[in-house]
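Milestone 3.1: sequence recovery, worked example.
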Protein backbone atom coordinates (compact mmCIF):
# COMPACT_ATOMS: atom_id res chain seq x y z
CA UNK A 1 0.00 0.00 0.00
CA UNK A 2 1.31 3.49 -0.79
CA UNK A 3 1.39 6.47 1.47
CA UNK A 4 -1.81 7.58 3.14
CA UNK A 5 -2.86 11.06 4.23
CA UNK A 6 -2.84 11.46 8.02
CA UNK A 7 -3.84 15.11 8.48
CA UNK A 8 -2.68 18.64 7.79
CA UNK A 9 0.38 19.83 9.69
CA UNK A 10 -1.41 22.87 11.16
CA UNK A 11 -3.95 20.61 12.85
CA UNK A 12 -1.36 19.47 15.41
CA UNK A 13 -0.23 22.23 17.77
CA UNK A 14 3.40 22.41 18.78
CA UNK A 15 4.00 19.95 21.64
CA UNK A 16 0.45 18.70 21.16
CA UNK A 17 -1.32 15.50 20.16
CA UNK A 18 -4.03 14.66 17.69
CA UNK A 19 -5.91 11.46 16.95
CA UNK A 20 -6.32 10.91 13.21
CA UNK A 21 -8.42 8.32 11.38
CA UNK A 22 -6.96 7.29 8.04
CA UNK A 23 -8.66 5.98 4.96
CA UNK A 24 -9.33 2.33 5.69
CA UNK A 25 -10.12 2.96 9.36
CA UNK A 26 -6.64 2.88 10.93
CA UNK A 27 -6.45 5.30 13.87
CA UNK A 28 -3.19 6.92 14.94
CA UNK A 29 -2.13 9.50 17.45
CA UNK A 30 0.38 11.98 16.10
CA UNK A 31 2.63 13.97 18.43
CA UNK A 32 4.26 17.25 17.43
CA UNK A 33 7.56 17.35 19.28
CA UNK A 34 9.07 20.76 18.58
CA UNK A 35 8.13 20.55 14.89
CA UNK A 36 8.99 16.85 14.46
CA UNK A 37 6.10 14.43 14.08
CA UNK A 38 5.74 10.94 15.53
CA UNK A 39 2.83 8.59 14.93
CA UNK A 40 1.81 5.74 17.19
CA UNK A 41 -1.12 3.57 18.17
CA UNK A 42 -4.27 5.42 19.23
CA UNK A 43 -5.19 3.25 22.22
CA UNK A 44 -3.16 2.70 25.37
CA UNK A 45 -1.52 -0.76 25.40
CA UNK A 46 -2.67 -1.13 29.02
CA UNK A 47 -6.42 -0.68 28.64
CA UNK A 48 -8.86 0.73 26.10
CA UNK A 49 -8.08 4.40 26.75
CA UNK A 50 -7.47 6.91 23.92
CA UNK A 51 -3.91 8.18 24.17
CA UNK A 52 -4.90 11.53 22.66
CA UNK A 53 -6.51 12.28 26.05
CA UNK A 54 -3.13 11.87 27.74
CA UNK A 55 -0.55 14.43 28.77
CA UNK A 56 2.32 15.38 26.49
CA UNK A 57 5.21 17.63 27.48
CA UNK A 58 6.89 17.63 24.07
CA UNK A 59 8.85 14.42 24.56
CA UNK A 60 7.08 12.17 27.05
CA UNK A 61 3.50 10.99 26.66
CA UNK A 62 1.60 10.06 29.81
CA UNK A 63 -1.66 8.11 29.76
CA UNK A 64 -3.90 9.91 32.21
CA UNK A 65 -5.59 6.74 33.42
CA UNK A 66 -2.77 4.90 35.23
CA UNK A 67 0.19 7.11 34.30
CA UNK A 68 2.07 4.76 32.00
CA UNK A 69 4.60 6.84 30.05
CA UNK A 70 6.51 6.58 26.76
CA UNK A 71 9.23 8.35 24.84
CA UNK A 72 7.36 9.45 21.71
CA UNK A 73 10.54 9.38 19.60
CA UNK A 74 11.03 5.65 20.13
CA UNK A 75 7.78 4.38 21.64
CA UNK A 76 9.89 2.92 24.47
CA UNK A 77 8.15 2.50 27.83
CA UNK A 78 9.26 4.73 30.73
CA UNK A 79 8.66 4.48 34.46
CA UNK A 80 5.94 1.99 35.31
CA UNK A 81 4.82 1.35 31.71
CA UNK A 82 5.06 -2.34 30.84
CA UNK A 83 4.70 -2.27 27.06
CA UNK A 84 6.01 -0.11 24.22
CA UNK A 85 3.87 1.88 21.83
CA UNK A 86 3.49 0.64 18.29
CA UNK A 87 4.96 3.33 16.08
CA UNK A 88 3.84 4.40 12.64
CA UNK A 89 6.38 6.45 10.66
CA UNK A 90 4.84 9.69 9.40
CA UNK A 91 6.43 12.13 7.00
CA UNK A 92 5.73 15.75 6.13
CA UNK A 93 5.09 16.58 2.49
CA UNK A 94 4.03 20.15 1.78
CA UNK A 95 1.39 21.12 4.31
CA UNK A 96 0.33 17.55 5.12
CA UNK A 97 1.45 14.49 7.04
CA UNK A 98 1.48 11.04 5.48
CA UNK A 99 1.82 7.55 6.79
CA UNK A 100 4.28 6.03 4.41
CA UNK A 101 7.50 4.21 4.20
CA UNK A 102 7.35 0.66 5.36
CA UNK A 103 3.76 -0.41 6.04
CA UNK A 104 4.53 -4.08 5.51
CA UNK A 105 3.49 -6.51 8.23
CA UNK A 106 7.14 -6.63 9.33
CA UNK A 107 7.58 -2.86 9.37
CA UNK A 108 4.31 -2.26 11.23
CA UNK A 109 4.66 -5.20 13.57
CA UNK A 110 4.96 -4.99 17.33
CA UNK A 111 8.46 -6.48 17.44
CA UNK A 112 10.09 -4.72 14.53
CA UNK A 113 8.38 -1.38 13.92
CA UNK A 114 10.67 1.60 13.89
CA UNK A 115 13.82 -0.46 13.26
CA UNK A 116 16.34 0.80 10.76
CA UNK A 117 15.22 0.13 7.20
CA UNK A 118 18.37 -1.90 6.48
CA UNK A 119 17.47 -4.31 9.32
CA UNK A 120 13.89 -4.61 8.08
CA UNK A 121 15.15 -5.38 4.60
CA UNK A 122 17.43 -8.14 5.91
CA UNK A 123 14.56 -9.66 7.91
CA UNK A 124 12.23 -9.34 4.92
CA UNK A 125 14.77 -11.22 2.82
CA UNK A 126 14.48 -14.15 5.24
CA UNK A 127 10.67 -14.22 5.13
CA UNK A 128 8.65 -16.74 3.16
CA UNK A 129 5.10 -15.65 2.41
CA UNK A 130 2.48 -18.35 3.00
CA UNK A 131 -1.30 -18.52 2.56
CA UNK A 132 -3.39 -20.97 4.53
CA UNK A 133 -7.02 -22.00 4.31
CA UNK A 134 -9.38 -21.74 7.27
CA UNK A 135 -8.78 -24.72 9.54
CA UNK A 136 -5.12 -25.19 8.58
CA UNK A 137 -2.94 -26.17 11.56
CA UNK A 138 0.39 -24.33 11.53
CA UNK A 139 1.96 -26.27 14.38
CA UNK A 140 1.15 -28.54 17.29
CA UNK A 141 2.66 -29.07 20.77
CA UNK A 142 5.96 -30.89 20.44
CA UNK A 143 6.71 -29.65 16.90
CA UNK A 144 10.15 -28.15 16.36
CA UNK A 145 10.07 -24.37 17.00
CA UNK A 146 12.35 -23.29 14.17
CA UNK A 147 10.31 -20.47 12.63
CA UNK A 148 8.22 -17.61 13.93
CA UNK A 149 5.34 -16.01 12.06
CA UNK A 150 4.16 -12.47 11.34
CA UNK A 151 0.48 -12.12 10.51
CA UNK A 152 -0.28 -10.23 7.30
CA UNK A 153 -4.02 -10.88 7.24
CA UNK A 154 -6.57 -13.28 8.63
CA UNK A 155 -7.00 -14.73 12.10
CA UNK A 156 -5.05 -17.38 13.99
CA UNK A 157 -6.18 -19.18 17.15
CA UNK A 158 -3.96 -20.80 19.80
CA UNK A 159 -4.78 -23.79 21.95
CA UNK A 160 -2.62 -24.88 24.87
CA UNK A 161 -2.44 -28.58 25.73
CA UNK A 162 -3.27 -31.70 23.78
CA UNK A 163 -6.31 -33.72 22.77
CA UNK A 164 -9.28 -33.31 25.10
CA UNK A 165 -7.23 -31.29 27.56
CA UNK A 166 -6.86 -28.06 25.61
CA UNK A 167 -7.44 -24.52 26.78
CA UNK A 168 -7.81 -21.35 24.69
CA UNK A 169 -4.55 -19.47 24.35
CA UNK A 170 -5.80 -16.39 22.51
CA UNK A 171 -6.01 -15.05 18.98
CA UNK A 172 -3.86 -13.12 16.55
CA UNK A 173 -5.76 -10.84 14.24
CA UNK A 174 -3.81 -7.60 13.81
CA UNK A 175 -1.46 -7.11 10.92
CA UNK A 176 2.09 -7.37 12.22
CA UNK A 177 1.35 -9.54 15.26
CA UNK A 178 4.08 -12.07 15.92
CA UNK A 179 3.53 -15.63 17.11
CA UNK A 180 5.55 -18.79 17.39
CA UNK A 181 8.16 -16.69 19.18
CA UNK A 182 9.72 -19.75 20.89
CA UNK A 183 11.85 -19.78 17.73
CA UNK A 184 13.53 -16.60 19.03
CA UNK A 185 14.35 -18.08 22.44
CA UNK A 186 17.30 -20.26 23.34
CA UNK A 187 16.38 -23.47 25.10
CA UNK A 188 12.79 -23.75 23.86
CA UNK A 189 13.12 -26.11 20.88
CA UNK A 190 9.52 -27.34 20.86
CA UNK A 191 6.07 -25.77 20.54
CA UNK A 192 3.92 -25.69 23.66
CA UNK A 193 0.68 -24.72 21.90
CA UNK A 194 -1.08 -25.36 18.63
CA UNK A 195 -1.83 -22.61 16.12
CA UNK A 196 -4.74 -22.89 13.69
CA UNK A 197 -6.11 -20.49 11.09
CA UNK A 198 -9.70 -19.52 11.81
CA UNK A 199 -10.03 -17.95 8.37
CA UNK A 200 -7.94 -17.73 5.24
CA UNK A 201 -4.71 -16.17 6.49
CA UNK A 202 -1.53 -14.77 4.98
CA UNK A 203 1.67 -15.07 7.01
CA UNK A 204 5.36 -14.37 6.86
CA UNK A 205 7.41 -17.33 8.09
CA UNK A 206 10.91 -16.43 9.31
CA UNK A 207 13.60 -18.72 10.65
CA UNK A 208 14.33 -17.71 14.25
CA UNK A 209 18.07 -18.41 14.26
CA UNK A 210 18.59 -16.52 11.00
CA UNK A 211 16.64 -13.54 12.39
CA UNK A 212 18.77 -13.57 15.55
CA UNK A 213 21.93 -13.48 13.42
CA UNK A 214 20.60 -10.34 11.68
CA UNK A 215 19.84 -8.74 15.06
CA UNK A 216 23.28 -9.65 16.44
CA UNK A 217 24.72 -7.46 13.67
CA UNK A 218 23.00 -4.41 15.20
CA UNK A 219 23.06 -4.73 19.01
CA UNK A 220 20.84 -1.65 19.54
CA UNK A 221 18.15 -3.10 17.28
CA UNK A 222 18.63 -6.50 18.89
CA UNK A 223 18.12 -5.03 22.37
CA UNK A 224 14.97 -3.22 21.23
CA UNK A 225 13.51 -6.41 19.78
CA UNK A 226 14.41 -8.46 22.86
CA UNK A 227 12.82 -5.88 25.16
CA UNK A 228 9.66 -5.96 23.10
CA UNK A 229 9.70 -9.74 23.04
CA UNK A 230 10.02 -9.82 26.84
CA UNK A 231 7.04 -7.43 27.14
CA UNK A 232 5.04 -9.54 24.70
CA UNK A 233 5.74 -12.72 26.70
CA UNK A 234 4.87 -10.93 29.96
CA UNK A 235 1.55 -9.79 28.47
CA UNK A 236 0.88 -13.29 27.23
CA UNK A 237 1.60 -14.80 30.66
CA UNK A 238 -0.54 -12.17 32.38
CA UNK A 239 -3.49 -12.83 30.08
CA UNK A 240 -3.06 -16.62 30.41
CA UNK A 241 -3.01 -16.29 34.18
CA UNK A 242 -6.17 -14.22 34.07
CA UNK A 243 -8.11 -17.00 32.31
S1 LIG B 1 -5.13 2.69 30.55
FE1 LIG B 1 -3.35 3.76 30.04
S2 LIG B 1 -2.05 3.44 31.69
FE2 LIG B 1 -3.78 2.27 32.19
Amino acid sequence: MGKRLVCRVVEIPENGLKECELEGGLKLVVANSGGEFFGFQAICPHQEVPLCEGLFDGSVLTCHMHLWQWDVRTGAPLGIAEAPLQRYPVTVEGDSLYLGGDDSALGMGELFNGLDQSILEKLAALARRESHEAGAVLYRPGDQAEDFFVLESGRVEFLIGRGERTAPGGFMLKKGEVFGWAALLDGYPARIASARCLEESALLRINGKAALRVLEGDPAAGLTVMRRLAALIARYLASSGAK
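The longest strand covers residues 165-172. The mean pLDDT is 86.
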